[in-house]
Amino acid sequence: MDRIEYRRIVSPEDFEDISQLRSLAFDAHAIYSRKLNGNATDDSDFWPGVQVFGMYYDRELVSTIRIAHVTPKNRDCQAVRLFPEVLDPLLDQGQTFIDPSRFAVNDEISRDVPGLALLTLRLAFMATKYFGVDACLGLVTEDHVPFYRRVFRSTVIAGPKKCEGFAVPLVLFASPLREEEICARYPLFRSTAKEREMLFDTPASGMPPLTILPTAKYVAHAA
Predict the structure, then answer these.
(1) InterPro entries of this UniProt entry (predicted)?
(2) How far apart are CA 181 and CA 219, in angstroms?
């Protein structure tokens, strides 16, 4: 983790890098019904409540994830658009969620550096705690369901469903924050309140910090 940095994506240059990484990952795994061919950013990256992050290993972009804070007043996210029949009634009851989407990892580097996927999903785990939501959502293909059940104790709440624009059916799951249980098994998910604030808060200047370093090891040492 000493070689990992997180960055909230704000500049056009960084978004271009994110677009290329997403396109390579999604095209290689045939996630969408058409090839993205390097064009993998759109208006949904700039919806209210949405933040896009890149994770860097030795200063090289290796993964990315988009985090949406979903509330009854702010429902613009991929999960709600694809599963409104399930999520709108829950939002009408006042529930809130984190919806991580556009999760992509550099496959070549991931083969040499195991754990990049978990370190990226750590962002969604921290957002779930920071925003105090009822659950973290997830849209995954059926073959990835066992992974999310094993790591996050996720529960499938809808699907599989063939969604417009996707080449494969999607499953919707929900993961309430089981912090102590998950961190006991995977200490890398631990974080300090300061790290979470730096990641998800918007400073008065409107510009987030350039990079944020993971704090899991410091929490583990303190414990």
Answers:
(1) Acyl_CoA_acyltransferase, FeeM_cat
(2) 15
Alpha helices in the chain (DSSP H): 12-28, 78-82, 84-92, 107-112, 116-131, 145-152, 179-185, 193-200, 216-222
Give this prediction's pTM.
Answer: 0.90
How confident is the model at residue 113, as a pLDDT?
86
List, for residues 178-187, the tens digit of each pLDDT value: 999 999 999 9
pLDDT tens per residue, range 36-91: 777 788 899 999 999 999 999 999 999 999 999 999 999 999 999 999 999 999 99
Question: Cα–Cα distance between 223 and 218 in angstroms, integer?
Answer: 9
Give CA angle at 116 (47, 133), nearest 5°.
Answer: 45
What are the residues facing 71 on neighbouring strands?
A: 74
Query: In DSSP terms, which residues pair with 74 in a beta bridge?
Result: 71
Q: Residue 134 phi/psi, 5° resolution?
A: -75, -35
pLDDT at residue 33, as a whole number: 72
Q: Helix, strand, or coil here: 182?
A: helix
From its phi and psi, is residue 37 left (phi > 0), alpha (psi between -120 and 50) or beta?
A: left
DSSP assignment of 40-84 equals ---GGGGSTTEEEEEEEETTEEEEEEEEEEEBTTB--SHHHHH-H
Degrees to nearest 5, angle at CA 77 with 72 and 78: 135
> What is the structure's pLDDT at 203?
73
Q: Which domains does the chain have, with CATH numbers?
A: 4-188 (3.40.630.30)
